[in-house]
UniProtKB/TrEMBL annotation:
<dbReference type="InterPro" id="IPR003010">
    <property type="entry name" value="C-N_Hydrolase"/>
</dbReference>
<dbReference type="Pfam" id="PF00795">
    <property type="entry name" value="CN_hydrolase"/>
</dbReference>
<dbReference type="GO" id="GO:0016787">
    <property type="term" value="F:hydrolase activity"/>
</dbReference>
<keyword id="KW-0378">Hydrolase</keyword>
<feature type="domain" description="CN hydrolase">
    <location>
        <begin position="1"/>
        <end position="260"/>
    </location>
</feature>
<protein>
    <submittedName>
        <fullName>Predicted amidohydrolase</fullName>
    </submittedName>
</protein>
<dbReference type="InterPro" id="IPR036526">
    <property type="entry name" value="C-N_Hydrolase_sf"/>
</dbReference>
Length: 294
C-alpha cells in the first residue's frame, strides 16, 4: 500500500467551488501517484472560515462557528472523493461544536473509507493555546478503525507526545498524526513523539503538517512543518526509523510504500519486541528509591 501525507498550506477561499477544486486537486494528485491512504493535517479545515469573509475569519470564536457549520458539507465532499478514487482519507481536523459534548468546540478529525463509511476522532489533550486562549476542549475517547488496509488510529498533534495514548492504540498498524505547529520546536516535538510511538508499538506513524502563513487567523498565522512517515528501526524497515520526509515548509504530498506484512513480522520476530515487552515495565518503574551520593 502507498501512504500520502500532506504538507498543506491554507488559502483564502473565494467560494465553495474554490475549496472543492483545491481539495479535489490534492486528492486527484495523490491518487494518480498510486496512494491508498491520504492524511491531511490538524486544523486544515480552518481555511473554510475565509468563505464567511475576513471579519469572521479574523475573529477566533466566529471563525470556529463558521467552520463548524460547514463541516457537514466538507464531509460530504471528502466522502464523495473517497468513493470516487477508492481511497481512505483522513480529513484535516476542524473545530466542531458537538452538543453531546458540551457548549465548547472540540478539535475533530474525520476518517473516510471507499465504501462510504465515516468515523471521527477528537483530540484528547489540549495545548496551552487551545485551553488558555481558544477554549477548545477534549472530545470523545480514542477509537480504532478496522479497515481493509489494516487497523488505523489517530493521535492529533499534541496527543502523539503522550505514550499512554499511543499504547491505547497498540493494536493499530498505522497511527495517523495530523499536526499544526507554529515553530520548528513544535514540529520537532510532534516528530519525536510520532517516532517514539512507532518504536513502542512497532507500527507505522504518519505525520501531516500545515505549512506557510495564514495571517487572517490567530490560531495558525504561521505554520512550520513537513510531512513524514516513520517506522520501527528494525527488520524490514529503514535503520533510521524514517521512511519518507518532505522538505521543511514545502507544500505537497510525501509518499511511502508500506507492506503491512512487514509490520506483522517485526511484531512477531523483530530484533527487539518493544510492543510485546511493554508490560514488563510494571513494577520496575516505581516506586523509585532515591540514593544520596554526596
Amino acid at each position: 500500500m502507498r501512504i500520502a501525507t500532506a504538507s498543506y498550506p491554507l488559502d483564502v477561499l473565494e467560494c465553495w467551488d474554490g475549496y472543492a477544486a483545491k481539495l479535489s486537486g490534492w486528492v486527484a494528485e495523490a491518487s494518480s501517484n498510486g496512494a491508498d491512504l491520504l492524511v491531511f493535517p490538524e486544523y486544515a479545515g480552518m481555511e473554510l472560515a475565509t468563505l464567511a469573509g475576513p471579519s469572521v475569519a479574523g475573529d477566533l470564536e466566529a471563525s470556529f462557528r463558521a467552520v463548524s457549520d460547514l463541516v457537514p458539507e466538507a464531509d460530504a465532499l471528502h466522502a464523495d472523493l473517497a468513493r470516487r478514487y477508492k481511497l481512505h482519507i483522513l480529513a484535516g481536523s476542524a473545530p466542531v461544536f458537538d452538543p453531546s459534548l458540551g457548549h465548547r468546540p472540540v478539535n475533530r478529525a474525520r476518517f473516510f473509507a471507499p465504501n462510504g463509511a465515516m468515523g471521527i476522532q477528537d483530540k484528547q489533550i489540549m495545548t496551552r493555546y487551545e485551553r488558555e486562549v481558544a477554549d477548545i476542549v477534549p472530545g470523545a475517547p480514542l477509537r480504532l478503525f478496522d479497515t481493509s488496509l489494516g487497523r488505523i488510529g489517530v493521535l492529533i498533534c499534541y496527543d502523539s507526545e503522550f505514550p499512554l495514548l499511543g499504547r491505547a492504540l497498540a493494536e493499530a498498524e498505522f497511527m495517523l498524526v495530523p499536526s499544526c505547529t507554529e515553530a520548528l520546536a513544535g514540529h520537532s516535538r510532534v516528530r519525536i513523539g510520532a517516532m517514539a510511538r512507532a518504536l513502542e508499538s512497532q507500527c507505522v506513524t504518519v505525520v501531516a503538517s500545515t505549512v506557510g502563513t495564514a495571517p487572517w487567523t490567530d490560531l495558525m498565522d504561521v505554520s512550520v512543518g513537513k510531512g513524514g512517515i516513520f517506522c520501527p528501526p528494525d527488520t524490514g524497515f529503514p535503520a533510521t526509523g524514517v521512511m519518507a520526509e518532505g522538505q521543511l515548509d514545502e507544500a505537497g504530498w510525501v509518499y511511502a510504500d508500506v507492506d503491512p506484512a512487514a509490520i506483522a513480522h517485526v511484531r512477531r520476530d523483530g530484533v527487539v519486541l518493544n510492543r510485546a515487552h511493554w508490560s514488563e515495565q510494571e513494577g520496575r518503574a516505581g516506586p523509585i528509591t532515591i540514593e544520596r551520593m554526596g
